[in-house]
Design a protein that fits this description.
Helices cover 27% and strands 17% of the residues. The chain is of the alpha/beta class and 311 residues long. The chain has a single domain, classed as Aldolase class I (TIM Barrel, Alpha-Beta Barrel), CATH 3.20.20. Strands 7-8-9-6-5-4-3-2-1-10-11-12 form a 12-stranded mixed beta sheet, covered by helices on one side. The longest helix has 14 residues. The two termini are 23 Å apart. The C terminus is likely disordered. The structure holds S-adenosylmethionine. S-adenosylmethionine binds next to strand 3 and strand 5.
Length: 311
Amino acid sequence: MKDSFGREITYLRVSVTQRCNLNCVYCGKSDCAKKETELSPDTIEKLVRAFAKCGINKIRITGGEPLVRSDICEIAGRIRTVEGVETLALTTNGVYLAQYARELKSAGLDSVNISLDSTDGSTYRHLTGADVLKKVLEGIDAAERAGISPVKINTVLMKGVNSDGADDLVNLAKDRRIDVRFIELMPFSDNGEDSSLIVTGDEILREFPFLKPVESEESTAKYYSAEGFKGRVGLISPITHKFCSSCNRIRLLSDGRVKPCLGYETAYDILQFIDDENKLLEEVKNIILKKPAGHSFGNENAGHGLNRTGG
Ligand code: SAM
């Protein structure tokens, strides 16, 4: 269905947990990462069913870190069987991906985005607080082997922190059939508030002038490639090139609230309607209609934040 600004809302991000096994420097911290508040696979399926009836056809499982849930494959399988869901994607830090990739593929997972901010072991450890780069790289290999496609890498570059590793990440797109997407740092944490750390999409293009634009199916990322590249480089620039006017997504948080825009704290509880299908549908429609025109980054009074309730 269309929101009140005429945008067709087709994409739901489902956060299945606030918990995370990493501690990334730029990530908004949640103060209530409790397992007890997580939705059961059955509840997630019921809620997704209601969203699908309102026109959602793409679901992305996210978190926190979704793969810390031992029932993640059941969750994926249940979402995939919901009528109207055409694409099931996952965003993960990749640490546990090697152990789950095949089962997730069997459960119906189509594609995966893996967060990787550096291919250098000590920089990775500094950024995430964990010495697990090898496991993430194994996770990327396992996803490809399992036939999950596409496999994309998400990277947040920060000046003077990991920006000197951009070459190695771009080379991943050169050597492998993998899209490497650079996301501009958003203001979700103390580090995120420091805009001098942001590496903009335009700066990346200046650093890699051989990258030329290519056709893209996505509204959020602009894609580039070059002679001899097997994959593409994507630029996601929510700060310098707002894409709110084509934003087609809403978010189900891990505690059952729905957030129409990442840029605002506002979220609506729909769990209270779980046993009344008509009411649930009505509420989902109301929330879609409340989606604001654009995010609030840059407006310090707006109260924004991506915390672990729902990346
Ligand atoms: N744990 C999973 C992961 O690491 O991919 C899923 C949740 S994580 C919050 C989802 C994505 O948000 C990651 O790709 C991460 O890099 C990105 N992200 C987190 N904080 C960010 C920030 N301040 N600015 C830009 N992207 C951010």
